[in-house]
């Protein structure tokens, strides 16, 4: 029977003499022969633990076990199953066993292939497989017994607790065998690590160093050249330093105590940190030493540029956890975008290799909550933390009123992060920074000084923010000026002191120098004025009266104009609808036109209109820079200069056209124009009659002259407004010269008058002039006279009936004079005398 007949599933083959024999399948694992290396495992099993040729019995291994191995070898040899042989063939093993025990029976000789023998061989193979299984399961126990036998030999000496080296390399060589058995090397014997101890006993007094790299080549290669690279040597750190000598711990069982053996202070700091506390609560995601310093065998010095804890790499290392949004949400980290905020900060963008990173503020190992009084970012510790890099600023802060309050235990006093921010700290030259010059630093200061709770608690004066914002400085700052004075310009940045302190920049004796930084030559009289002007009658009576009078004047004037124009609109809309209903024209067109404005007058009007509305827009852009109407203009300019120069350019144009108009009044037409614009008693009568007409108490409106009381009021209001705005504008434009000659209240009064006069002029133009020439139902959509200079006879007759009658009277008088002249000429011709002169 061939060996192949034993492989695979059950098969049938014809037996000799016509017998049919069923062959059982070979046991699993022996199909096609026994497993590769089975014979070697048998030879290397407990029977050969000490003597491959069984020349001596093995202690702890019974003769029955040895005979079982020999029987297995015989069965494997006599079976027809192919079996790979090693360098030590089985016959030599059998011979050795016979020499050891003469009572063993001789192995049976193989018989010829036959049907019955095949069945017997199949059963023999099954029995051999069973015996092999028993031998293999017994092998570990046998090896352990052999190991115990070898280790017990070593422990005959090394179990002595007093055993120690002598000479230069002193130290205990006591070994606790139970610790070795529980360690990662528990399956190894002593000679596995100390091959020099094999052989005769006692061994040499100085054994070679243990070569961990013989088994752990990858780890040895990784750690070579690193701070922990003293593998097997006498370096500061080697394998024993972390893993131990005999009680070797596996990597999975090693915690920070392995690092603490050398880094006790660091381990103690970490033990109190947030990470260690989370780890103690069972949070396996909490950072440990290797999470920051790298893989166990690849730890680099923090001075190594490639180390994950090198100064330049710390942000990336911390970001592995703090930039993981899933982890941030699971752990409810308070600042979820701390990494992005830092990267956008002045520290994150800095090219300085020494710029602050995470550990500079939060410490390297003792990371604690900001609410923990021991934390480096606890509120009262923040100045000292920032002062590690910013020593000059820290010294100024501790001198100032804020630092003094913090030393007294006032925890609500501002610290570095209240003004500069926490992670996204931006430099003072960044326009988005909360400490940028202008409106930014003002808002930052106002967050405390304008907060009701803080102001009332610490007795701070009220109205400081509003008074600053309404001042010239505040208006320019809100408009985006990067050079205008803000809170820090006068009070200082870090060394803020009260005005009663002689060291303060706003102390009475220092004000002249403080203001002189921006206003050269500002005298002592200027410094005596109030900076934060409150519109209170008791504190600033002059300014209070100016403001009060203007508010009443604006209300009364614009209110009266609105009432007048509203009544005019209603009256004329009723007339228009009535005319349309009756299908008749209000004024039949005659086709005749009269000159209303000359070219020179139209040019004066055009320049005046453009300059006026430019002044209004750029002026209100200074006052209301946040409003959507003006915000784009504030963003368009890079600061205060553009708006300022556009405003001043328009002012020059307006003053220029005003002076031209004064000269124009000395021309013949100008003199007639001025005479017609002078107020007369008839204007008062027209006001009353037109009021009755608009109220529906009079059927027809009064017949107005060339310029009605409406146009005369506009003209003289324009003259008044131009003078007032020009004078106050010059005071504001040449502020340094003004401040040298006058007290500060003069400048403040000019600012107040300029502002309220602008409102009065703008509202008057809108309500009075624009309505009269645009929204008026009689001329809508516009009175085009300002462009072509003409007026139709119908409009002239309706709006200026008095002028039209005068013109008609003049025409009739001229016609009558011409008729008389012709009549006299005819009479003279008939009489034969000379014709009258002028005919």
TrEMBL record:
Gene3D superfamilies in UniProt? Cytochrome C3, Hydroxylamine Oxidoreductase, Chain A, domain 1, Transmembrane di-heme cytochromes, Chain C
Q: Which Pfam families match?
A: Ni_hydr_CYTB
GO cellular component, as recorded: plasma membrane
The protein depicted here goes by the name Cytochrome B
Q: Where in the cell is it found?
A: Cell membrane
Q: Does the keyword Lipoprotein apply?
A: no
Main localization, broad class: membrane
Q: State the residue spans of region: Disordered.
A: 1-63
Q: Does the keyword Repeat apply?
A: no
Q: How does it sit in the membrane?
A: Multi-pass membrane protein
From the record, give the transmembrane residue ranges: 549-570, 606-625, 645-666, 713-733, 753-771
Question: GO terms for molecular function, please?
Answer: electron transfer activity; oxidoreductase activity
What lineage does UniProt assign to this protein's organism? Bacteria, Candidatus Eiseniibacteriota
Question: Which branch of life, at top level?
Answer: Bacteria
State the Gene Ontology BP annotations.
respiratory electron transport chain
InterPro entries to which the protein is assigned, alphabetical: Cyt_b561_bac/Ni-Hgenase, Di-haem_cyt_TM, Multihaem_cyt_sf, Multiheme_Cytochr_ET
What residue stretches are annotated with the Cytochrome b561 bacterial/Ni-hydrogenase domain? 596-772
